[in-house]
Amino acid sequence: MGFEPLIWYCKPEPNSIWDKIVDSTFGSYTPCAINTLVTSTSNLVLMGLCLYRIWLISCNVKAQRFCLKSHYYNYMLGMLACYCAVQPVLRLLTGNSAFNLNEETGFAPFEITALVIESLAWFSMIILILLETKVYIRQFRWLVRFGVIYVLVGDIVMLDLLLSVKDYSNRSALFLYISTVIFQVLFGTLLLVYVPNLVPYSHHTTIQAEIPENGEYEPLCGDDQVCPEMCANLLSRLSFGWITPLMKQGYRKPITEKDVWKLDKWDQTETLNEKFQKCWMSEFQSSNPWLLRAFNNSLGKRFWYGGIYKIGNELFLFVGPIFLSRLLDSMQNGDPSWIDYIYAFSIFVGVLVCVLCDAQYVQNVMRVGFQLRSTLVAAVFRKSLRLTHESRKKFSSGKLMNMITTDANALQEVCQQLHGLWSAPFRIIIAMVLLYQELGVASFIGSLMLVLIIPLQTFVISKVRKLAKEALQQTDKRVGLMIEILSAMDTVKCYAWETSFQSRIQSIRHEELSWLRKAQLLYALNNFILNSIPVLVTVTSFGMFALLGRELTPARAFTSLSLFSVLRFPLSTLPSVLSKVANANVSLQRLEELFLAEERNLKQNPPIVPGLPAISIKNGYFSWDPKAEKATLSNINVEIPVGSLVAIIGGTGEGKTSLISAMLEELPLISDGNATIRGTVAYVPQISWIFNATVRENILFGSKFDHNRYWKAIDVTSLEHDLNFLPGRDFTEIGERGVNISGGQKQRVSLARAVYSNSDVYIFDDPLSALDAHIAQEVFRNCIKEGLQGKTRVLVTNQLHFLPQVEKIILVSEGMIKEQGTFEELSKCGPLFQKLMENAGKMEQEVDSNKDRDSHDNKTDALPFNNEAMVELPNDTNYEKGKLRKSVLVKKEERETGVVSWKVLTSYTSALGGLWVVSILFACYTLTEALRISSSTWLSVWTSQDSTAASQAGYFIFIYALFSFGQVSVALANSYWLIISSLRAAKRLHDAMLDKILRTPMVFFQTNPVGRIINRFAKDTGDIDTNVFNLGNMFLGQVWQLLSTFVLIGTVSTISLWAIMPILIFFYVAYIFYQVSEGGDNFSVGQRQLLSLARALLRRSKILVLDEATAAVDVRTDALIQKTIRQEFYSCTMLIIAHRLNTIIDCNRILLLDTGKVLEYSSPEKLLQNEETAFYKMVQSTGPVNAEYLCSLVFGRTENNSNEYNKELEIHTKPLASIHWNTATQFAIATTLSSLQHLQSPNTKDKKDIHNITKNAVTTLQEVLEGKHGESIEETLTKYHVPIDRCVFEPDRPVQPGIS
Predict the structure, then answer these.
(1) How confident is the model at residue 121 (pLDDT cuts 50, 70, 90)?
(2) Is the per-residue pLDDT at 1226 higher than 60?
(3) 63 band by pLDDT with thresholds 50, 70 and 90
(4) Residue 330 to residue 342: CA distance in whole angstroms
């Protein structure tokens, strides 16, 4: 007696047709089993998926909702679904059973149940389709489509069963079932290709569709939010179960940095670097220090621990081939089925252990690789800060950056693959032993061919690396030029150089892609060789085995194939590993040389001692280059007392900045003298350094916030007024390089940073040159003179009207201190000082001008300097310091998460060349898989023969070789086609991006950091060049292989295909769940401004914009430049932006701005005639003597303009001035454009020659402004037969990039 409920449910008929005709283990229970397990299960899955999607549409308020533009497609799907839902009901009503054979009647319970479930499933589909005509969501739609496909596969299984007994079936019932299957196939096809046209749903607001950026942190499992790996149990660590909380969070929203765990202490860079430094110091003290040994001592434990897992992985890798041979032999010999199950289970266990060991091995060595890289980055950075000046010459910034990137990456990669040096030979030996057991002597021939391929592999890989290196050099050149373009984008746009630079970039890009194309095509050829060798080895080995008279059984054939497959990996990777080891050894030696280099003595400055000077230099000779014949600074003897205010003055390029560099011990001392600075030091550079952060963060600079000290620093640097007009006051974000604040504001933020540091010594490198006259006066008085009183202050300045207020003046000329003393002393007995003051128009200034200014200030109490010419500051009583919301300028970088959108895929398809290119690729993948399946099928046919004669063996071998070589040949053609197409797409995408960037308004560059833009042209472009091709080829190959495998399984056994389909959905859901988601530094700032000015003069534009063009030059040079500009550009429109009133005092019109508004606009004569104007008060704020001098320039100009003699003199002097300018600046500008902008490579081989020649040209240019070299210029013109009139008119042609 059987199980009564099962008998009632299935109604089996003993000795029925199902027993006799159908070859099934279920016997008479076959229709019940197939209908219940396959059909009903499939329909239940479909019904569940439909109901869940209905719930999402109806109840899930977080889902983004849409409407369909047209409902006709849904109506058509609905009609097909109606037929599929009604047909089971119709069969029930008519009593038409598909399983009644030989005119049997009635329904068994299992068939009634199946028909009801099928009808309910399709009715749920109808409800879903109708609901989607009202509201449509994107979530879960593909899973519903999978459910339909799953039902179709189940129907095919049932149809296959019914067709096997069609001679005994009811014709009408069979016809109804076939018609239902046809309608379901039609429905599934239409649903699969359905791409709905959607519009936003207007009657619903999505609630928190995405987690906001400022959303609260959701705690993860782990003590103190530290990675819980070390606390996890053995099973969790083996299966990586400890990472599940992070994966759950990643499923709910895209993972960001704040979502992940904190690093455990042993993974933190600080801990790793400390451990390495201890190991390296111990190694450094040995007789033969070896960097590799230090790395092994600090990081080796986990690396060798991973090696244990690698041993387990290698051993269990061979469990599959061994038990596969036993399984096939058992099946061929007809052994009991339980033995087959044991073998199959053994294969499963072997694969499982192999995968677990491999995962642990990869996790350990990858972790060590990242630890090694972070250690190296920290160690190189630490060492770079400690290098002596001599050592620094051997290790330039580019070389150090190369160590942090290239060398660190090389060691990281080799660390992750170093175990391959022993595992590859181990795997080869074991595989060859097992092959010998299967094929005997014939295996040696195949194995020998595999070994001989190693030298060829090594040669090809080395060649590929050389080609890739050439491509990388072009990449570096292109990215370097892009950095310079983006850094000077305002200049590029001003001169309309976009087209010139675009063609230059595209030329380099063409060379880069040419090298890349060669490298990738050669790499594809290498892959063809790798794929061909197994085919050749297999054909040769099997052919030799057959020719020796041995029988090639399925067990021997497929076991040998699996072993040859095992052999292919180590033989293909071993040459690569050896090459990477060689490269890593070179990187190791470079890093070892760095770590062995001499370090600076980084002792703290000695403390302030009463009675001793704060800064002292005795018998100092300093030079940036100890081998130079002339020192940068010579015979320096200076003492600066504690608490004093000292000014350093001198002409442009005379050595002022070099002197303070010597004080800071940055400029190397080359004599027996000494230089000492006591106490803590704050330095304000000539060019203010501002980083992308808030105003407050720029001032604090990492220090702890002190309310009183902070607002005092704001007050003494006159920033309070500016903060009132910033959207977030001191919480306003400053853009990269301070693009959204003025030059004066940047300089005062830099000053406030120094004041807040509360140091003992302050060194200011001409910070007042970027400020307005009245602001400069106020900052000097409130900050430098009074606010820092008691501190030691050294001020480099070109604004000589501050000199009467300092305690000591140091005059630097030709790299030496020519004069030093008080203002009174130098005014009486300092000839150089007297001449400098005379050139500045200040010799008449009296010593007591400070008192005059103070009395003037007292007279104008109601109009203080910082508000005189400014709009009144509104009273904002609601403002609470420190509590405003941060004003964001630079937006957070946008990034795509989740599945790649169709828009991106469509764009890339268009860049590839269109659908016809993709169609050819898909055809190649399809043909490759067809040939692969054909070769395996043919091998199965060959091994199924009873005996293998020599003649038959040759025939089978030839066909097998034809299929196999055809497969790899098509794969090669496919790779070549994909490489050519992908590089074409890379070029189009890069050119389009470059075109957009060069034509984007400047506001884009002010709100997007340069590094972010460069990343698009560097890393992202590199990914498109190489990674997209490799990953795309790998992905598409795997997809086609998976599809072809399913087709093969479905052809052999449809029910097997139905059974494994849920595995697909499992992996898909798991996938979704785990989807986590150098320019002119050798010149002073003043010299660089001269070069920029000369470039503008050569261009001869109709409109000339001078934005603080002479702020960093001394007053005398400024006057000479202004005179020359007015002679050269008397017919041009000039817009001059300057803080020095001397620079703009003789302009035709003066435009005074305040907080972005026009305050005054008129001629200087009218503005100075009205004592109530802000401009008049500005002039008066410079002091009575200088104010009188400025007024004389304005009103004296009026008289001179009416003088015909001056006009005639101007006409005669113009040609001579043109000759001077053009002759002196041609080579300087050509060299500047060539060396600094990469527009033209100079002929000279030595970079030092370029710097010297350009520096000499700048000096000559400065001397020409003084009226020197007239005879030399005329001689040069005569020598080269250049007429004077040509020199006058030839420069009217604009200078374009690359033209000298």
Answers:
(1) very high
(2) no
(3) confident
(4) 11
Q: What is the pLDDT, as a whole number, of residue 1078?
A: 46
Are 184 and 152 in contact by the 8 Å Cβ rule? The answer is yes
Does position 26 have pLDDT exceeding 80, yes or no?
no
CA distances 764 to 685, 808, 810, 963, 1129, Å, are 7, 15, 14, 79, 35
Longest alpha-carbon distance in the chain: 135
Q: Which runs of consecutive H residues, i.e. helices, occur in 1074-1183?
A: 1085-1099, 1115-1128, 1141-1144, 1164-1169, 1174-1181
Predicted local confidence at residue 47, as pLDDT: 93
Reduce the DSSP state of residue 754 to 3 states and report it. helix
Pairing assessment for the beta strands 633-640 and 136-137 based on DSSP bridges? unpaired
**C-beta of residue 29 within 8 angstroms of C-beta of residue 10:** yes
Residue 441 pLDDT exceeds 50: yes
Q: Which helix (H) or strand (E) holds 857?
A: helix 849-859
Q: DSSP letters along 69-132, please?
A: S--HHHHHHHHHHHHHHHHHHHHHHHT--SS--TT--S--HHHHHHHHHHHHHHHHHHHHHHHH
Give the Cα separation of 1140 and 777 in Å (integer).
Answer: 12
Residue type, 480: G
Cα(30)–Cα(24) distance, integer angstroms: 7
Distances, alpha carbon 517 to alpha carbons 274, 529, 761, in Å:
44, 18, 58
Angle subtended at Cα 323 by Cα 319 and Cα 327, rounded to the nearest 5 degrees: 160
Beta bridge partners of 694: 733
Distance between CA atoms of residues 869 and 864, nearest Å: 9
Return the structure tokens found at 151: 């039902």
Class of residue 161 by CB neighbours under 10 A (exposed 0-12, middle 13-18, buried 19+): buried
* Amino acid at the residue 324: L
Write down the residue that tokens 């369909």 correspond to: 68
Give the mean pLDDT of the chain: 77
Q: Give backbone dihedrals phi and psi of 171, rounded to 5 degrees, phi first.
A: -60, -45
Q: Give Cα 887 to chain centroid, integer Å.
A: 26
Parallel, antiparallel or unpaired: strands 1103-1107 and 1133-1137: parallel
1267: confidence class by pLDDT, cuts 50, 70, 90: low
Q: Please report, for residues 11, 33, 172, 1052, 1054, the alpha-carbon distance to residue 166 in angstroms, rounded to integers and kept in the order given.
A: 20, 19, 11, 20, 18
H or E element in which residue 245 lies = helix 244-252
CA distance 703 to 1052: 73
The first and second tokens of residue 658, run together, are 């070099």
Among 627-631, 693-697, 885-889, 891-895, the range with the most confident prediction by mean pLDDT is 693-697
Q: Using CA atoms, how far apart are residues 827 and 843, in angstroms rounded to an integer? A: 8
- Which two tokens mark 988? 């189009």
Q: Rounded to 5 degrees, what angle do the CA atoms 932, 934, 940 make?
A: 110
User: What are 232-290's pLDDT values in tens digits?
Assistant: 888 888 888 888 888 777 777 777 777 788 888 888 888 888 999 999 888 888 888 88
- Percent of the chain whose predicted confidence (pLDDT) is above 70: 78
Nearest to 382, CA basis, from 414, 404, 408: 404
Residues in the chain: 1300
pLDDT reported for residue 1293: 34
Alpha-carbon 1285 to chain mean position = 53
Q: DSSP alpha helices (H): ranges in 999-1027? A: 1002-1007, 1010-1015, 1021-1022
Task: Assess whether pLDDT exceeds 90 at residue 124.
Answer: yes
- Estimate to the nearest angstrom the gap between the alpha carbon of 235 and the chain centroid: 37
* Token reading at 637: 């003897």
Q: Is 1193 exposed, middle or buried (0-12, 13-18, 19+ CB in 10 A)?
A: middle
Would you tell me the crossing angle of helices 319-333 and 420-439 to the nearest 10 degrees? 20
Q: CA dihedral defined by 1020, 1024, 1030, 1036, rounded to 10 degrees?
A: 110
Asked if 376 and 408 touch (Cβ cutoff 8 Å), the reply is yes
